[in-house]
């Protein structure tokens, strides 16, 4: 059995904390058993490890999430990297070809697909384990996990069981056959579906690797990972549910009665937060069911407001009634890049980004590098930079010339100049980057580790 976690998302539902570089699963707003703030992906990975599944697990993600994934989970996590976002059908097809042509997984092996951000109890993974045996004994093409609904939700898809399996369903023993699916119904229809013993579709399903490889061959899609990566842009932007699941002839579902929640909106996420306030600010005592999440240094005060969420980050400010927060993605269309990014070596915060009438552009950043970490040996093709060291000490290299740097040092890095820095203690740098807006800037990287840089680039 191999487990594949799907990690994607555009970062709009939990704006302004989430963005294209830091999707919802990376927000550190949940607490672990040690009362430390952790992200959804850190929580799920901890559960996977605790259930002995980490050695069989891969994470399918896109290029923009590689650094933050490794920063939060570890540098040795096996990643399957998609060249661009193309929805779950393409991501799962790419993962299948990786397992087939790179990991030498057999065609008879069970592959279990799991979202990277479900909020579940540990025993949920007992049901995940069961999917392998269900595939073997049912001879179904696909096996699902369906969650027993607790209310007529309009946010989830529903799995409707076959009527012939109603008695088996009521006994609660084992899997049942699936009749059809219903996507996000109205509340009235959801009530009718629940009366038909329908289950919430939690996005967990299993298939034999050979089933998907055969599907790819029938569609004329490459089954080798490298070739499919090259042709990835040709795959349809469609969900696996629509392209495969709804066209499968034999599907079974395993009912799950434990706790499960999709923390995809601010109202559902805040329900699972231990603290109603993270960051600087105050919530007055007459506020009820109100949450403040503040990532900047300016304090925020909330007085006399109930059932609201206030979220503040370098990307923007959100003030929303919790019941309205699911509509957020329809309103976020600001033409700006991420103002905060978490990297494998630290983080970047955009302090100012300005374009002048003469065509110049100037971006000011605050950059933090963790002790022992370093930037790659790189150069900018169309931007020059001025660095001011404001915290810590480090080792700096520019075109092979090495020097120690400390607080107060100012470094000028012209365009097309190779450079890197390593933090001997936690480093903070104010970076002012400038150039001509219309001249596209490329970052060319030669080496990533400090050992490589020291071996090949430092002049003796």
From TrEMBL:
Coiled coil: none annotated. Residues 344-445 form the Mannose-6-phosphate isomerase type II C-terminal domain. It comes from Paenibacillus uliginis N3/975. One of its GO terms (molecular function) is mannose-1-phosphate guanylyltransferase (GTP) activity. This is Mannose-1-phosphate guanylyltransferase. InterPro entries: Man6P_isomerase-2_C, Mannose-6P_isomerase_type2, NTP_transferase_dom, Nucleotide-diphossugar_trans, RmlC-like_jellyroll, RmlC_Cupin_sf. Keywords: Nucleotidyltransferase, Transferase. GO terms for biological process: GDP-mannose biosynthetic process; polysaccharide metabolic process. Residues 4-274 form the Nucleotidyl transferase domain. The keyword Nucleotidyltransferase applies.
